[in-house]
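Sharing a chain and its predicted structure for anyone who wants a worked example. Both blocks are below, sequence first, tokens second.
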Amino acid sequence: MELLNHKINPPCKVILTRIAPRKLDDEDNLRTALKASKDFVADMLIPGLAPGRADGKSEIAWEFKQEKGKVREYSLKIELIQENEYVEQVGSGRI
């Protein structure tokens, strides 16, 4: 996956941070809310597999977080870390 002039290859760690006015239950609802984003990022990092299958590969470590946003602020922050080195904050923006 190439992002902003950086080539990212697994193994790596991906941190998905949901930003919204209210927090979700960390164990169930947060993971469910971020599932489509997780699938998309995994498919970009490990292309060639059936859609939605790459997120199960052990080469990608996942971390899910959430931050309190302002009223009507819904966004997603995607961070990539390769070999314990912070590589890129891929995106953060209003959804």
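Comments welcome. The longest strand covers residues 85-94.
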